Amino acid sequence: MATGQVQIKRLMAMPLRAAVKKIAGKAIQEARFAYRQYRISRSPIMLQPELFHSFESHMVFSYESPIREHAADYLREEGLDGEIIRDADRICAHIFNLLGSGDKNLGPFLPWSEDFKTGYRWENKYYQRIAIVNLDDAADVKVPWELSRFQHFFTLGKAYALTGNEKYAREFQTQLEDWMLKNPVEMSVNWTCAMDVAIRAANWIAVVPFFLKSLCIPDFFWDRFHACLYLHGAFIRSNLERTGEHTGNHYAADLAGLIALGLYFGGNDVQVGRFGETPREWLHFGMAELEKELFVQVNEDGTNYEASTSYHRLVAEIFLITTVWCSNNGISFSERYMKRLESMHEFLLNIMKPDGRSPLVGDADDGRYLIVSRYGNWVRSDFRHLLAVAGEFFNRDDFRSAGRGSAEDALWIIGGIKPHTKSRMIGMKSAAFPDGGYYILRSAQAYCLIRCGENSFHGHGAHSHNDQLSFELHVKGKDILVDPGSYVYSADFRARNLFRSTAMHNTLQIGELEQNDIEERNLFLLREQTFAASDSFTEHRFSGSHQGYLEKVGFIHRRQLELEQTGLVIFDTLEQAVPNSDPVTSAFVTFLLAPDVRITGHMMNWLLESGDCKLSIDFDGAGEVQLQYAWISASYGTRVRTRLLRAYIRNRCLKTNIRWV
After folding, report:
1. Which residues form the Heparinase II/III-like C-terminal domain (predicted)?
2. Could you tell me the sign of the dihedral formed by the alpha carbons of 90, 92, 93, 96, in that order?
């Protein structure tokens, strides 16, 4: 059903008076938007660059000279300079790999308003009149948004610091002038999401110290730059993303952008009266709201309430970098805030696998706030860059040790690195995070993460998957059983629904029923039906259940996992909770294999191999076991073939015995 048909169906379901009121409201709104577009097209929103002619920011960065020179020396000593320069040269050549596009040469002028993966281009018009999503085509608005975040600029800045080559400064200037010309304020797709406006502003601000003294960049450019940057702040303040049922990473980014702009402009408080609040007021508002928002979005156990490890990383990065920037400029948050922020990174430490990577539970869209290292090849499941920064900021050796390979991030964000020698995995034990719904079992050779908890946004489920009681298994440094990832959002709604479905996760499914019902075209809703909870948790044992099938067929799925020194035993039971309910005729448990796992066997006995790691998997209580093809996505827009085992249950009970030698 097309989007327009869905809207008509919803209107028909309303009482007549309410439907008329809604239609009239939309007509009035559209007329207002059309008038606004007309006015802006006749008189574009702009500030006279001369207002900023004598402006000089007093914002303090961690990489002011001579620290910047020290950082360049460090990069050379560590052999990181070659990769940085190669990445910067690719940026100058306009070669980008964004959101699964593969390497693309985007031509002499960057396609700021185009999904260059499909060739679809959004026309420049008033941002409120731009349809950013059409589920009936493959265009993905995240592509132009991602390019226009300018997260590649920090790499240009580093290359300039390393070489002094003015070509990097000229590229910085040329791209910005082109973007400002082709994206008038409020008149392109790159103004349709305040979060992306905020991230863009933060990335522009972050690179000013690199290029401000460039001899090839004239003063009049900086005047235009500052005028446009200021308008970013006015736009964010007027378009805060807090109108929905819950706030989330978007609103956190909005606030972080206001704080960054407030720090940057606030020292001088450029007076531009017709745009309302001053930058100093942006800063005060952003600080007060961010302090409150941390306790809205971050649970008491340090987990983010969006029920996604990738979004936890993004939100932690937004809060951490903003807090560091404030600290550098003599502004602090409460002690309670700092403790909760620290707990976010304790969670990141605890979910880390022995190989340093983390499971991608729930949605994952490659979202970042500021990319200061490895722009061209950062690993989406590696969160250690945050632990490196948090180690220095909170003065914690366990964080430092875990983030040892990402010291460059700490160097740029904090401005220094303290030596440390402790092994990063010393003291890593089983851990429970019931507020977020994550349970980690560890042994000398194995790691097992179990998902069991509330859907995101307190049951709304925007970034949740049907993954209750699903688990990942990592043995002897190898991924064995994994989460499927996310693949894409609106570019392919069927694939979106497949990757968040019950059948793609390592859990039990009854027939074709979903744990939480999926509305085919409502891609960011998964209303709570599971109410998953843990019954007990110890160092080597987890037990829990969910109610996703209770109202549908009268059964509760109960699962117990016991981690032993040389194996994992899983007990799945369908518990009849409604008397006289119809018997379950088809139920199966899925085991999704990592792509490089080799599998042989048949019936109830299978052999899994990955490198030198060998495992047997046996089923007791299965009527049939099938080996099927499946997909897995390690980053947004990419997917690779893998396989899964599907064990069909007899008599509502299944015991799965996984052994390694």
Report:
1. 429-660
2. positive
Dihedral angle sign, alpha carbons of residues 635, 640, 641, 643? negative
Query: How many other C-beta atoms lie within 10 A of the C-beta of residue 540?
Result: 16
Query: Which tokens sit at 333?
Result: 């948050």
Residue 324, pLDDT score = 98
At 42, list the tokens.
């006749």
Integer Cα distance of 659 and 639 in angstroms: 29
Tokens of 400: 């430092």
**pLDDT, tens digit, for every residue of 29-69?**
888 888 788 788 888 888 999 999 989 999 999 888 777 88
- Crossing angle for the helix pair 335-351 and 309-328, nearest 10 degrees? 140
Alpha-carbon distance 312 to 310, whole Å? 5
| Whole-structure pTM value | 0.94
203: left (phi over 0), alpha (psi -120 to 50) or beta: alpha
Residue from 473, 451, 505, 479 nearest 646 by CA: 505
Joined together, the tokens standing for residue 258 give: 């206001």
What tens digit of pLDDT does each residue of 503-547 get?
Answer: 999 999 999 999 999 999 999 999 999 999 999 999 999 999 999
Whether 109 has a pLDDT exceeding 60, the answer reads: yes
User: Cα(335)–Cα(333) distance, rounded to whole angstroms?
Assistant: 7
CB atoms < 10 A from the CB of 1, how many? 11
Distance CA(440)–CA(226), nearest Å, equals 48
